[in-house]
Amino acid sequence: MTDATFKEDIKLDEKIKKETQLPKKYKVIVLNDNQTPMEWVISILTEIFKHSQAQAEQLTLAIHSEGSAIAGIYSYEIAEQKSVEATMLSRNNGFPLAFKLEQE
Questions:
Q1: By residue range, what is the domain housing residue 39?
Q2: Torsion over CA of 33, 37, 38 and 43, rounded to 10 degrees?
Q3: Global pTM?
Q4: What kind and span of H or E run contains 30?
Q5: Disulfide-capable partner of 55 in 6, 51, 67, 102 (CB 3.0 to 4.6 Å)?
Q6: How confident is the model at residue 13 (pLDDT cuts 50, 70, 90)?
Q7: CA nearest to 55, candidates 68, 75, 71
Q8: Is 3 contained in some domain?
């Protein structure tokens, strides 16, 4: 490779715009129902979504009064994994607690 060719490669590389995008984030939303006990929702929020006891209690009250609340915001794969884990754990214990993912 000659010195002139090398300089030409550098010039071309400088002209190419490089755009990087951060991965999109997704909200895991807990939906209210009239069958799942508040204690269970609090335990899901502390165990799976790693909220403190106080945060979990506040979120549970918001879910109960407003119909839903955001449990966390994650990359798609983590949001999906946490919502599936929480749903399966709830179903295995006889509760219909539901979650949905929403792009931020």
A1: 23-103
A2: -110
A3: 0.80
A4: strand 25-31
A5: 51
A6: low
A7: 71
A8: no
